[in-house]
Amino acid sequence: MKQILFIIAHEGFQPIEYYAAKAVLETGEQKILTASDGEGEASPAYDGAPAKIDASVTDAKAVDYDGVFVVGGPGAIDHLDNENVYRLVREAAENGLLYGAICIATRILSHAGVLKGKKATGWDGDNELGGIIEAGGGEYVREPVVTDGKMVTATGPKAAEEWGKAILRLC
User: Fold this and answer.
1) What pLDDT, on a 0 to 100 scale, did the predictor assign at position 1?
2) Which of 87, 39, 37 minimizes the C-alpha distance to 62?
3) What is residue 47's predicted lDDT score, i.e. its pLDDT?
4) 35-89, pLDDT tens digit by residue?
5) Domain count, the chain
6) Dist. CA 71–CA 100, nearest whole Å
7) Best CA proximity match to 9, nearest among 127, 102, 115
8) Quick one: pLDDT at residue 163?
9) pTM surpassing 0.90?
């Protein structure tokens, strides 16, 4: 059984992206743990249940897991676009672990410097994602889910289940 760390914003995570992907992974008997920038329970951006937080992004170590994935939502950039999350995804990439992001959180991967030479996708409602991915050394691909090596990215809620399936295939 692999342990996967999902990182969500303490306020404003996207519940469909989190719960749909988590449910798919749990069918494969993966253990999903949740890290955030706050403690207790995280509040979803939209209708949905709060999520129990298992770890702090400040204290978590990527090498304690088999994969590290960042979930989007309106709170992702405000709460997760920081050095603590960059460190976690860098550690995952540098140690050959699974990693990735969905929706707006792909921008966090670019800011962390883990997209060099990689194909990636994500939310592009503002038509800026291509430039952000290219600035991080990656190639923007307009597909719902993109797997490149051990990295999996996805566009958003409509692709959440497929994102989970792509991660599961790598497990």
Assistant:
1) 84
2) 87
3) 84
4) 999 999 999 998 889 999 999 999 999 999 999 999 999 999 999 999 999 999 9
5) 1
6) 9
7) 102
8) 98
9) yes
Beta bridge partners, 55, equal 35
Report how far apart, in Å, the C-alpha atoms of 115 and of each of 33, 106, 147, 148 are: 24, 9, 12, 10
Strand partners, 67: 4, 98
The CATH number covering residue 153 comes to 3.40.50.880
Q: Is 98 left (phi over 0), alpha (psi -120 to 50) or beta?
A: beta
Look up the domain containing 155 and give its range. 3-170
74 neighbors 81 (Cβ within 8 angstroms): no
Cβ atoms of residues 68 and 102 within 8 Å: no
Residues 6+ apart with CB under 8 A from 32: 3, 4, 5, 6, 22, 25, 26
> Closest Cα to residue 154, out of 114, 119, 117?
119
Cβ-Cβ contacts under 8 Å for 78 (sequence gap 6 or more):
9, 11, 12
Tell me: pLDDT of 13 over 90. yes
Taking all residues of the chain, what is their mean pLDDT, rounded to a whole number? 97
* DSSP, residue by residue, 54-111: -EETTT--GGGSSEEEE--STHHHHHHSSHHHHHHHHHHHHTT-EEEEEGGGHHHHHH
The whole-number pLDDT of residue 124 equals: 97
